């Protein structure tokens, strides 16, 4: 009897192994000779495009069949054009993945009618980074701290309505007593920094601290930018004295609201596949994404390009969204009203 049990157990193990091998072979045969497009929800030149470019040079080594990865730019509405494309028009076979803004997945929750997708139906592969964003003022101004912008107007640049660079200065005006005069229409964070150098605007809220340090080190080293507050769930190690935005709140309810609005920061640089992709290909894409993030060649390339890395898995992204979509309705309604105003 024990012999039969061992035989059945061994047979079951072999069967499971053969099924896994067949599944892997199916994924491999599907991807052989194909091209995977990485849809980038912003114009070329921004940080999202850089992450997609570097990923495209390395991810093929980690996906069975070794397909070619090619970035395709699809800017508009703060990343929502790309997200809507992935929800409605993208191929559901694993040949399209995307990177969009870290706030895009929260737009349906906040009632944005331009966001015609269900964020939790996407197959999230993971995120390449946990973002710590900052609000900065040109060092040539008299704005040194957030208290200064409560007392005097600061003209700042922003992009589309759903991006962090637009959301947080609006919220700061309404909730924290700031006096930001917002000029919108810029495509990327670097575009806004160039506008600051030209004197068109005098600051911005929502640029990544890592991006600012790595791509504009002279601005940081020479203290040409004053950091007013951080948009994150935890302070950056090298900004210990700069407050988090929710620490500026006057009461506990406002603090919870600002913390909720900062949750997308943990989405960082999110990559995802559309709904309906076969499960074995989703799993292969997730494993390839994690493998790429841990690949020394990829890491060296990212460092050379000036990109920070901080892996968030697909399961962790889904967990974050589950928590966000479980926030009490009253708090969500207050957030929606605040943003609408």
Question: How many distinct folded domains?
Answer: 2
Helix content: 40-55%
CATH secondary-structure class of the largest domain: Alpha Beta
- Biggest β-sheet description: 6 strands, mixed
Unreliable stretches (pLDDT < 50, length at least 5) are 1-11, 13-23
Integer-rounded radius of gyration: 22 Å
SS elements, strand count: 11
- What CATH architecture of the largest domain do you see? 3-Layer(aba) Sandwich
Element string (H = helix, E = strand): HEHEHEEEHEHEHEHHEHEHHEHH
Spatial arrangement of strands, main beta sheet: 2-1-3-10-4-11
Alpha plus pi helix count: 13
**Secondary structure category:** alpha/beta
Mean pLDDT: 89
CATH names the topology of the largest domain as D-Maltodextrin-Binding Protein, domain 2
- CATH homologous superfamily designation of the largest domain: Bordetella uptake gene, domain 1
Structure description:
The protein is about 45% helix and about 15% strand. The protein is α/β, with parallel strands linked by helices and about 350 residues long. The chain has two domains: about 190 residues, D-Maltodextrin-Binding Protein, domain 2; about 130 residues, Periplasmic binding protein-like II (D-Maltodextrin-Binding Protein, domain 2, 3-Layer(aba) Sandwich), CATH 3.40.190.10. Helix 5 links the parallel strand 6 and strand 7. The N terminus is likely disordered.
